[in-house]
């Protein structure tokens, strides 16, 4: 019954989506705790300490990995939400078209976030 | 399929036990967080731009509406993180029984409320 819609899922199968969702969750939890820890544990949290942190290549890479994890995680989560609520049962025959439009918009935002993040991290 | 089988999809008549409440809030906070990413990227961009940009981000949070937006964003993040940790623990087989699930759900709500209140104290 769900065969048609699963082609838009991130990992193309429930097993891979399940795994990607967990791996990205662990990355995001680690990144969040790191940032919170940095802000609270810095003796003097200022522009100097903050920009020095992001001058380190590992921090830029860590941030990029977290951003990519965000995009993957959000896609899998929002896909679940969208395929649960924007359905033919809930909205009638137009649901499939509406769902595709919403998915395309979400994907566009995901690409926008990724490019923006890379520009912040590496652009001048 | 028997088309006359009884169906109850009237959400207002369906009970919402703690686990269901935790689940729907996890979804709502997840959707909210996808928008919050734009706010975070904006803040990251400005804070790394220059010392003035960093000061501007800090100063922006002096106003009450900005404090409320930041608190709401942090609340979504805290809640989503705590509920997500419960998912990961359940994947490890912890709290999978009916009673364990109930207790875990209540714990998520309690821990999230406490952390969200602490975040509020930190912001003000």
Automatic annotation (TrEMBL), chain B:
Intracellular or extracellular location(s): Membrane
Record's bilayer topology term: Multi-pass membrane protein
Cofactor(s) this protein requires: heme
Membrane-traversing stretches: 21-48, 68-85, 105-123
Entry's Gene Ontology BP terms: tricarboxylic acid cycle
Cofactor binding remark: The heme is bound between the two transmembrane subunits.
Sequence positions that bind heme: 80
Matching Pfam families: Sdh_cyt
Domain of life: Bacteria
GO cellular component: plasma membrane
Main location group: membrane
SUPFAM superfamilies: Fumarate reductase respiratory complex transmembrane subunits (SSF81343)
InterPro entries the UniProt entry points to: SQR/QFR_C/D (IPR034804), Succ_DH_cyt_bsu_CS (IPR018495), Succ_DH_cytb556 (IPR014314), SuccDH_FuR_B_TM-su (IPR000701)
GO molecular function: electron transfer activity; metal ion binding
Alphabetical list of CDD domains matching this protein: SQR_TypeC_SdhC
Keywords, sorted A to Z: Heme, Iron, Membrane, Metal-binding, Transmembrane, Transmembrane helix
Sequence similarity: Belongs to the cytochrome b560 family.
Function per UniProt: Membrane-anchoring subunit of succinate dehydrogenase (SDH).
Assembly and oligomerization: Part of an enzyme complex containing four subunits: a flavoprotein, an iron-sulfur protein, plus two membrane-anchoring proteins, SdhC and SdhD. The complex can form homotrimers.
NCBIfam families named in the record: succ_dehyd_cytB
The protein, known as: Succinate dehydrogenase cytochrome b556 subunit
């Amino acid at each position: 019954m769900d065969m048609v819609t699963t082609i838009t899922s991130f990992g193309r199968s429930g097993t891979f989506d399940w795994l990607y969702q967990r791996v990205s969750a662990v990355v995001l939890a680690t990144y969040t705790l790191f940032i919170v820890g940095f802000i609270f544990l810095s003796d003097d949290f200022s522009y100097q300490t903050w920009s020095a942190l992001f001058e380190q290549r590992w921090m830029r890479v860590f941030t990029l990995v977290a951003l990519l994890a965000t995009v993957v995680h959000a896609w899998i989560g929002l896909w679940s939400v969208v395929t649960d609520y924007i359905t033919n049962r809930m909205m009638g025959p137009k649901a499939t078209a509406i769902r595709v439009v919403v998915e395309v918009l979400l994907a566009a935002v995901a690409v926008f976030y990724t490019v923006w993040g890379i520009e912040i991290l590496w652009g001048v | 399929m028997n088309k006359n089988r009884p169906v109850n999809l009237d959400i207002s008549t369906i009970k919402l036990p703690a686990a269901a409440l935790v689940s729907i809030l996890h979804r709502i906070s997840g959707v909210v967080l996808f928008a919050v990413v734009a706010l975070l990227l904006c803040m990251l961009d400005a804070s790394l731009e220059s010392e003035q940009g960093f000061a501007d981000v800090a100063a922006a949070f002096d106003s009450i509406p900005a404090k409320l937006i930041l608190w709401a964003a942090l609340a979504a993040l805290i809640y989503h993180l705590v509920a997500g940790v419960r998912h990961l623990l359940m994947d490890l087989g912890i709290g999978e029984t009916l009673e364990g699930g109930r207790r875990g759900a209540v714990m998520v709500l309690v821990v999230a409320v406490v952390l969200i209140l602490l975040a509020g104290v930190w912001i003000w």
